[in-house]
Amino acid sequence: MTLTVRPGRPLRGTLRVPGDKSIAHRALILSAMAQGVSILRNLPGSEDVGATRACLERLGVRQRPGPAGLSVAGRGPHGLAQPAGVLDAGDSGTTARLLLGLLAGLPFAARLTGDPSLRRRPMRRVAEPLRRMGARVRLAAGDHLPASVQGRPLRGIRHVSSVPSAQLKSAVLIAGLLARGQTSVTEPRLSRDHTERLLPLFGARVRRRGLTVTVCGEARLRAARITVPGDASSAAFWVVAAALVPGSRLRLPGVLANPTRLGFLRVLERMGARIASSRPAGDPEPVCELIVRPASLTAAEVRAEEVPALIDEVPLLALAASQARGASRFHGLGELRHKESDRLSGTLRLLRRFGARARLEGDCLVVSGPAPLRGARYDPRGDHRMAMTAAVAGLVAEGRSTVTGAECIAVSYPGFCAELARLAGT
Fold it and tell me: What confidence score (pLDDT) does residue 331 get?
């Protein structure tokens, strides 16, 4: 699939983004571990979330869509069934890493794999603490899928992580729910905290002190009712687009306002973007409404400690920086090399392809602006976020732009191209 984008009309109107993927993955897995029927509303239709649902079905978890939402018949940890074949996480790193935590404590053996992109991504950082808890986890080449997991009785541990990773933290906490005693994870900086926020809804005992979160093991989870807020990372594409396209005024209601996910908004506001936000409300996850208008931007410095709260939005922020006055610097981006693609090199390639001025200094990305962008042909190499970032670049570039392999966008945002056509007339 090739997506063609031309600079067009201002982005005006109201747009509701799909439900948040990160929360959806966790809500599905915890519902499967609980006793009773959970009701999950506003689940996104992305391929990533579909991979989690398919894996849970192979573990014996019945799911049924209905007018109130998706009903998930939890089986409790001891009622989950050994899968007849290999569990396939597709392109979803969240599916793979969180399922490793679940499988570690189940009383059977299972195999887990993914597509070629996922099989290149590191898994040792998750496997090692699970092995310390007592699980047997064997990885291909010591660090990659496919994985063979022999679940065993687990014991709680104290894990100090060298990187702020919500997927690692969540995998260990999920395993900790099945373990004897307490399990804690300490991070160098706070990563996404959706797991900690959801667990009390399911009856788990959770404690946070500073950068350490602790769960009590041998938990008996109960069913819950959850409405998934709008995905902040999906909203980010429209926020940047409306901030850059002259004459735009875009309203985005129901967007997740979790502080660990809104780092991109804080950076854009420092750059001078005009973003009005309603007061966040809701429990356990706050939501807000955003109204975005274009503005003249100035360069910003993004510190390494800010990156965990905006890791998925770095390519978009770099694009915004290409239109800002001065040199923006993004520090501590090494983790971007381990996403669906090497997003650090990919971001540099995208910017240069469209005519922006950018360079790498180790793990620091430097973007100088403002630079007039020119239409380009761009191959995202299977990375959905890079494809959508290129589409936004096409809205502000001179001439026609094409994004090849745009079918990868369905991994996270199947409706993106239709919304782009509706709002921008491309």
Answer: 97
Q: Quote the domain boundaries for residue 190.
A: 21-227
For range 151-162, the mean pLDDT:
96
Identify whether the C-beta of residue 317 lies closer than 8 Å to the C-beta of residue 267. Answer: yes
What value does the mean pLDDT of the chain take?
A: 96
Domain boundary among 175, 198, 227: 227
Are 280 and 412 in a shared domain?
Answer: yes
Q: How many domains does the chain have?
A: 2
Strand pairing report for 144-150 and 136-140: antiparallel
Cβ-proximal residues to 319 (8 Å cutoff; 6+ apart), any chain: 240, 244, 350, 351, 356, 389, 392, 393
Contact by Cβ (8 Å): 105, 154 = yes
- Cα–Cα distance measured from residue 375 to residue 355, given in angstroms and rounded to the nearest whole number: 9
160: which strand partners?
186
Catalytic residues: 312
* Angle between helical axes of 343-353 and 384-396 (0-180°, round to 10): 20
Pair 199, 287 in one domain: no
Q: Which residues pair with 327 in a beta bridge?
A: 368
